[in-house]
Amino acid sequence: MQVEPLAIELCQRRLAGAKSTPLINGPETLEQGMALQQACIVCMKAAGYRQIGWKCAMPPQDKWVFGPLYDAETFQGEGEIDARIIPERGIARIEPELIFTLKTDLPARGTPWSQAEVDAAIGEAHMAIELIGTRFEDPSQCVFPAMLADGVSNQGLVIGPRVDLAAALAARTLQIQIEGAADAVLSYDGQHPSGLPTEPLAWFANFLNTHGRGLQAGEKIITGTYAGVLEVPLHRSLRMAYAGLGEMAFRFSPRQDG
Questions:
Q1: Which CA distances in Å does 255 have to 83, 93, 155?
Q2: Domains held by the chain: number
Q3: Strands (E) located in the chain
Q4: pLDDT at 257 over 60
Q5: Confidence bin at 217 (pLDDT 50/70/90)
Q6: Structural domain of residue 141, as residue ranges?
Q7: CATH of the domain at 50
């Protein structure tokens, strides 16, 4: 596998909001997928995209699930947030999540990080929406190492208001309501796929630890959706509420180059 030309290809697709066929002579193993992902991060940095954190999830036995988040693809603000996206079939595909910001480093060390240590390293939590999309026309035709290299279906992030940290750390379930996407209010009995929402963060910190890498204070991490992938319309004012935690207003518009 020739890493540099593959990284350039994936980055060009991401920067242009383009999709294409599976990679030719792409990664075949998880290690190759991770190496190509890291090369893509370097390539995106050269294009002016600063990495602000990660998405991660507790992976199945034969997969690693994590990918970078970039500042230029992150939308945050007061009032209604206008997020520019690459639509999928004329709609936005989203995942309702929580995002955690580290207040202290979790560097590589000789012993694993405990869940309590990871939780103590978190400084704040916010409502969040992961924007779903890949750089492949038909992801089902791609081997998973290529999806890992591409960031595991991430195309951006919406960050909502800050929420109570203790409540967020304990949020195994969330009652979710979305207004504006349909004639009626959409309701979901949200449940985190890992149980506690910071368990994937502890897994990821220890995964990096075994590879001689760590996490830094200030990095933001999302850890999994409470309601699967949801499809919502473009050009509408939407409002999402997490019962007992907070609510956020947003709308989705196509990127100019999308």
A1: 9, 14, 12
A2: 1
A3: 51-56, 66-70, 74-76, 81-85, 91-102, 122-132, 154-163, 173-179, 186-191, 220-222, 230-233, 238-242, 246-254
A4: no
A5: very high
A6: 3-254
A7: 3.90.850.10
